[in-house]
Amino acid sequence: MEIRELYLKNFGKFSDCHFFMEDGIQIFYGENEYGKSTIYAFIKAMLFGLDRGRGRAAQNDEFSRYEPWENPNYYAGIMRFTSGGKQFRLERSFDRYTKSASLVCEDDGEELSVEDGDLEMLLGGMTKESFDNTIAVGQLSARPGQELAEELKNYAANYYETGSSTVDLSGALDKLRMRKKSVEQEIKILYEKQEEKREVIRRECQYVTKDAEKLQSELEDNQEKLKTSRDLLRDMELPGEMDEPDKDGRGEAYNEDAGQKKHPDTDSGKSYIPLGLLGIIAGIAGRIWSFFTGSQSIFTGGGAISAMSWMILAAGILLVCFGGIKSIRHRFHKKYGGEELQKQIENQQGNDKQFQKSEKIEQEKEYLQKLKWENQRIKSEWKEKQVRFQNLQEQLAELDMPEPKIKNLQMTSQALQMAEEKLLSASRQMVQGFGDILNRKASGILGQITEGRYTRLLVDEQLNMTLLEDGRRIPVERVSAGTIEQVYFALRMAAAEILYEEPLPVIFDDAFAFYDEKRLKSTLKWLSEQQRQVIIFTCQKREQEIIKQF
Amino acid sequence: MRFIHIADVHLGAQPDAGSAYSAGRPQEIWESFSQVIALCEEEKTDVLLIAGDLFHRQPLLRELKEVNYLFSTLSHTQVVFIVGNHDYIKKGSYYRTFQWNENVHPLLGSELGYVMLQEFNLAVYGFSYHAREIREERYNLKAPGTAEYEILLAHGGDEKHVPVRTDAFENSGFDYVALGHIHKPQALVKNLAVYAGALEPVDKNDTGQHGFVRGEITEKGTHVEFVPYASREYIHLALRVNESMTNGSVKDYIKGTVEKRGVQNVYKFILRGYRDADVEFDTAHMDVYGNILEIEDETRPAYDYQKLYEENQDNLIGKFIGEFSGCTEGSIEYQALQEGVQALLENSLI
Question: Which InterPro entries does this chain map to (chain B) (predicted)?
């Protein structure tokens, strides 16, 4: 890129002022206050715009500094330049009301858009900061800023010695990290799903366990009942031990134990008593009747009546016995005092008791059998639960084995991690390689402008510069002010060469004040050999004189 | 003497069969089993041989009752079975106490036993698993010669489950060896030692046809045939993609393939080959019929790493590829290389 014309329509002290430029070294000579820095600022403003600061900062910013002295609302200029063999016209208006920029290719009349980055493209992606840090060499501030270190580092990662593509390292790293994140997310979801499955089984295990526990306690209850029933049965079957009060006592205790289910008749027993009494009365009446008709009855139907009366009597007594033997007895004692009758009744009662006892044993046996069956049922149900539980446990254990899909994803995640690490290590190699190239280039430039005095310059990642002289390391701060400027210059030029393919003009604003004649001469010589336009603003005549000698 | 030989029914298994079929799958396995029983009745098959793993896990009592009921519907067929490693006879197993119908002859001992079926002049030998694993080679047996026809029911064939040597059966003297445990139907010795395979596929890796073996033993010898019977089949298909394929075309292709091979089947697709580097297959949304278990994407963006390396030797891409020199396909390193190159190329201006 070469600047052909600067037209300061209204900029700082300049108004309607044209400057034309050629290839090679262009020198703007002027005494102090001539406006060299204004022109320098104009170039920068044309290339990168001039933004107005905000608030207090606005008072001393470049915008205010170069605000036209007259007619400040007309704050504009035009720059013509060539790039890639084509001529462009860049026009800007800086004032706050008509702020605009237009870029036209004058060869084919094509309108380009500054907003869309067409100018940036022509500048090879250079930003205002990198402009300051490389090709724009100001007064006594030639040390490149820290931004250059960053830019160089970034660039180093993307550095291509050959080819023309650029890789966005941080973009690639971001992509890998994002992929990894999503893979990890997927793994998490799969794990959660597995956990859900496991949870379902665990819950089922709990249900089964609870059921089993319930069955267990049922079984214990039943065992208890079984034991009581067995004891009772054994007692009942042992003869002689059947004293009535004893038996009653035990019977009551037993009834409490077994509950109502087994002896529903105990409660309703009393309702049998009146029924029984009725039977007994009928029976006795029958007996009495047959007693009176004694002689005939033996031969005639009286026998049947007599037998029937016995039966009714027996049934009555049986019923009453069911209800409560004691109360019946008392009532008998009260109602019927006749001795013979009493004997008969007692005899009858004895028989009934015998009968009742065996029936009770039968019942008890039946009950025992039922309990046994119940026991079996509970046991088998419990076992079913146990098998089910074990099967569930087996299923759980199977779920603990990692799914192949998760394994695959884990492998992908590892691979992504590895890709990231390798990419970083590859880029570090690149930085290192790039550092070597930067050092080599800067050293070469420094060597030329110091005429071989310093031939080795080492620049580290933080842009700390060290000179190597006869194997000694000299921090750049220790050398003379002039040499420092020259070291910075070498680094700037090396960086510009590396960072920007498009040879952009180099602009010096009184940058050679500390240079001695010899060094200035070799510097200018070096510059004149470059494929770049060189613009020098100076308040001294020596540059011009040296150039004339070439 | 005509027989049907089934194995590895795995009643109670809940194999993954895709979103559409998984829920009903356990029932389908029972269905299939009861249909085989019905078939035995219909064909008046003489003997039904079950070579182990009738159940997927320890059978519950009610499950045994169900099975016994099904057996009891057989008016002619005699059933002989052994118990395999999945439902092995552990302590307290219902197998130990269950009362089978009279036409059912379980060989539950841990040592070789046999059942004599006089009406067919047949002795069936076998033993059951009393542990999850049996590592000894226990099928190097000679037919004892107790009956005219002799069949061995066997379960196993891998390292942990009675390793089997093929030649052991060849001269064993058995008329037929009904094998179970390996789910893929196959003949170790033709017409002699045969794996019936799982009646229904019970794992997503049980690909291919499943069913049972129908056979006949006569004076002339033994002849068996495999009868495909399973209601579904697991099909694994590799689909080779090329650079012209997109999500839509892959989805359509998969849909078409599923329709052609049967919507009732359950699929796993593996996408292979080189895809357009800009296309990423969204495999989660290609299951049209709910019968796809998985679509594995093994495709690689169409990069030629060697060429890329040569072109980019001096830049980051080249350096990155260089970090992986000599790594083999399928390794983590190779995957890292793919991922990294893809990320780099997606973020570069060429």
Answer: Calcineurin-like_PHP, DNA_Repair-Maintenance_Comp, Metallo-depent_PP-like, Mre11_N
What residues of B are in the A interface, CB distance below 8 Å? Answer: 12, 57-62, 92-94, 294, 296, 311-317, 319-320, 322-324, 332-333, 335-340, 342-344, 346-350
- Are residues A136 and A44 in contact, defined by beta-carbon separation less than 8 angstroms? yes
Rounded CA separation B146/B260 (Å)? 51
Q: How many CA atoms lie within 13 A of B89 on its CB side?
A: 19
Those residues with Cβ within 8 angstroms of residue A23's Cβ, 6 or more apart along the chain or in another chain: A2, A533
Q: Which of A153, A386, A420, A422 to mutate to test the interface with B (most CBs of B within 10 A)?
A: A422
* Bridge partner list, A319: none
Check: CB of residue B164 under 8 Å from CB of residue B157.
yes
| DSSP reduced 3-state for B237 | strand
Determine the pLDDT at residue B303: 79
Give the model confidence (pLDDT) of B81-98 as tens digits. Answer: 999 999 999 988 899 989
Cα angle at B6 between B2 and B7, to 5 degrees?
150
Q: How many residues are given for chain B?
A: 350
Cβ separation of B348 and A430 shorter than 8 Å? no
Residues B152, B122: contact at Cβ < 8 Å? Answer: no
Q: What angle do CA A430, A431, A432 make, to 5 degrees?
A: 90
Helices B332-346, A169-237: crossing angle, 10 deg rounding: 130
Residue A33: DSSP 8-state: T
Interface test with A, best of B205, B236, B348 (most A CBs within 10 A): B348
Locate the chain B residue with the closest alpha carbon to A393: B57
Computed over every residue of chain A, the mean pLDDT equals: 79
CB spacing of B340 vs A388 below 8 angstroms? no
- Reported ipTM: the value is 0.73
- Residues facing A112 on adjacent strands: A103
d(CA B285, CA B336): 26
Phi, psi of B151 (to 5 degrees): -120, 140
State pLDDT tens for residues B228-267: 999 999 999 999 988 889 999 999 999 999 999 999 999 9
Q: Maximum CA pair distance of chain A?
A: 183
Query: pLDDT for A290-331, tens place per residue?
Result: 555 544 444 444 455 566 667 777 776 676 666 665 555 555
Confidence check: pLDDT of B226 > 90: yes
The rounded distance, in Å, linking the Cα atoms of A21 and A8 is 14
CB A409 within 8 A of CB A183: yes
Pairs from A377-386 (Cβ < 8 Å, separation ≥ 24): A378/A215, A378/A218, A378/A219, A378/A222, A379/A219, A380/B61, A381/A215, A382/A212, A382/A215, A382/A216, A382/A219, A383/B61, A383/B92, A383/B94, A384/B60, A384/B61, A384/B62, A385/A208, A385/A211, A385/A212, A385/A215, A386/A212, A386/B92
Q: B55 with B11: CB under 8 angstroms?
A: yes
Q: Which amino acid is at A476?
A: V
| Binary contact (A165, B349; C-beta < 8 A) | yes
Tell me, yes or no, if A158 comes closer than 8 A to chain B by beta carbon: yes
Instruction: Over range B283-305, report the average pLDDT.
Output: 86
Question: Region A29-43: what's the mean pLDDT?
Answer: 87
Residue with token string 């799958």: B25
Q: Are B170 and B189 in contact (CB under 8 A)?
A: yes
A386 close to B (CB below 8 A): yes
Question: For the packed helices A404-449 and A146-157, what is the interaxial angle rounded to 10 degrees?
Answer: 120
Which domains does chain B carry?
A: 2-228 (3.60.21.10), 234-346 (no CATH)
pTM greater than the 0.80 cutoff: no
